[in-house]
Specification:
Blueprint lengths: L3 H18 L8 H27 L4 H24 L12 H16 L1 H6 L1 H29 L7 H16 L22 H13 L6 H23 L3 H12 L2 H9 L3 H21 L2 H15 L4 H19 L5 H29 L12 H8 L2 H16 L7 H14 L12 H19 L4 H27 L9
Length: 490
């Protein structure tokens, strides 16, 4: 349990950073928002700081990558103290135990009040039922986790021979760290992004040792953040029960749990996709520059996690551009500002990815593979490959027992939203996550078509993970569509 203080430090770093960034924000339930996003924000900051220190001063990288986050936390605490004493102009909130008790007691009084119960009988009953189901699912999940993660505490094949190998190069010898790009270890894919290896190595630096349990703790915390993010999003739209049900679906998904135990980078990528989708909706619904920036940040993090993030970031930016441009309630200058906020927040992780790709790892399986346009066109228009991809894709979507009817439920949500759900103004832009889901499926199908590897060998594990990524915006769409129409609670 020596990594628990480390997890707490990362959380504090992310929480205070978000508190400073979200001063005067109009987003709903700010404190719970910061709790849900604090850990991934803090971890991404630490990973990028470590990589920057290795680029600028490798001899002093280990000291600098630990010192800079501590100094940043100290500065934010001073700003918070200054604001609380009335000397500052903004409002940097330091979340205290007193604040937590106050919020919980207020919500409890509201929930059990007779007036509230009589007014919202359905919501109250659904919340109680979904809470019971969530607690039951959580108990089963914890029991399964304790039994499953111990035998594979070092992770699966990709974790041991790709992500952990890169982390060990970043931790063991600061002068030889660039050897992680060596073609002699080509199985590690030298051009793969480094958010997860950087986070693992940064944690080892903080702990002063290669604690073998740290990567596993990271992976489990990513999953916990997904659950908290769902609860925050649905409570912000007045449907906490839907968030609890969505969380039940999430933690009962075999594939998600399997890749969590295996400690693959697909778990943090799925988290960043989920958070970016949630904040994109907040951008459109609340016209928030802060949400636009957080959308860009998590898109940038997704790109700095896996190459699939390049597709996701492109789709997300394109969708936001189309939706904002079609929104007649926003003038042209404001639309440009929203997009600039997105670009500015994504700039640093995207720059880290491009710096690595262009300077250290120009070759790769896709970008820099040396294949010609003719080779790509032949792969794209190979109808046999197209047929195989579509057939296997549909088999996993609707026949794989591990999804437990997830994608059938998704189709039902589409039909219900189109023909039965009233279009209530507080939750417009509800089709956004659906379109994003479909774009991701098409994009990943395209990736499989141009893959340099044997299709039948790769399609099994690759398609499982790709569907997992696409399920993040899908789960938002489903439970937003199937909830009863309610007003947004602030």
């Amino acid at each position: 349990m020596t990594y628990l203080p480390l997890l707490l430090f990362i959380f504090i770093l992310g929480y205070l950073t978000l508190s400073y960034f979200l001063m005067n924000s109009n987003l709903p339930k700010l404190k719970w928002l910061k709790i849900s996003a604090a850990y991934p924000v803090g971890l991404g900051v630490c990973s990028i700081i470590l990589y920057g220190c290795y680029i600028v001063s490798p001899q002093n990288a280990k000291l600098l990558c630990i010192l800079i986050p501590h100094l940043w936390i100290g500065l934010l605490i001073l700003i918070g103290i200054q604001n609380r004493s009335g000397k500052g102009t903004g409002h940097l909130s330091l979340f205290t135990t007193k604040d937590l008790k106050s919020v919980l007691s207020q919500k409890l009084r509201q929930a059990i009040s007779k007036e509230n119960f009589l007014k919202n009988k359905f919501v109250f009953i659904m919340t109680v039922i979904s809470l019971c189901l969530f607690i039951y699912s959580l108990i089963i999940f914890i029991n399964m986790s304790l039994r499953a993660i111990v035998p594979i505490i070092h992770g699966g094949w990709d974790a041991r021979f790709i992500w952990h190998v890169k982390a060990k190069f970043l931790f063991r010898d600061v002068l030889l760290w660039k050897n992680l790009y060596s073609p002699l270890i080509s199985w590690t894919h030298p051009d793969y992004p480094l958010l997860l290896p950087g986070a693992i190595a940064w944690g080892w630096n903080w702990l002063g040792q290669e604690l073998f349990a740290w990567p596993g703790a990271l992976s489990m915390t990513f999953l916990a953040c997904m659950v908290i993010a769902l609860l925050w999003h649905f409570s912000a739209i007045g449907a906490l029960w839907a968030g609890l049900m969505a969380a039940c679906v999430l933690i009962n998904n075999h594939y998600l749990l399997f890749w969590t135990y295996e400690q693959y980078a697909d778990i943090p990528l799925a988290l960043f996709i989920l958070l970016a989708t949630v904040f994109a909706l907040q951008t459109l619904r609340h016209k928030s520059f802060h949400a636009a920036a957080l959308t860009g940040l998590f898109c940038g993090y997704s790109l700095w996690t896996k190459l699939e993030g390049l597709f996701f970031t492109t789709f997300m930016f394109s969708l936001l551009l189309v939706y904002l441009w079609r929104d007649s309630s926003i003038d042209k200058k404001m639309k440009i500002k929203y997009l600039l906020c997105f670009i500015a927040a994504a700039a640093i992780p995207v720059a880290a990815f491009l710096f690595q790709k262009l300077l250290f790892a120009p070759s790769g399986d896709y970008w820099g593979s040396g294949r010609s346009l003719q080779d790509y066109s032949q792969a794209i228009f190979n109808f046999h490959r197209i047929r195989v991809v579509i057939m296997v894709f549909l088999m996993y979507l609707f026949r794989a027992p591990s999804w437990n009817g997830f994608w059938i439920f998704f189709v039902i949500a589409i039909v219900y939203r189109r023909f039965f759900l009233k279009q209530d103004s507080p939750l417009k832009f509800g089709w956004f996550p659906l379109i994003l889901t479909l774009l991701m499926c098409v994009g990943y199908g395209f990736v499989l078509l141009i893959s340099p590897f044997n299709l039948m060998m790769q399609i099994d594990t690759a398609l499982q993970r790709l569907i997992l990524h696409a399920s993040m915006p899908a789960i938002i769409f489903m439970f937003e569509s199937l909830r009863p129409s309610v007003e947004i609670k602030r």
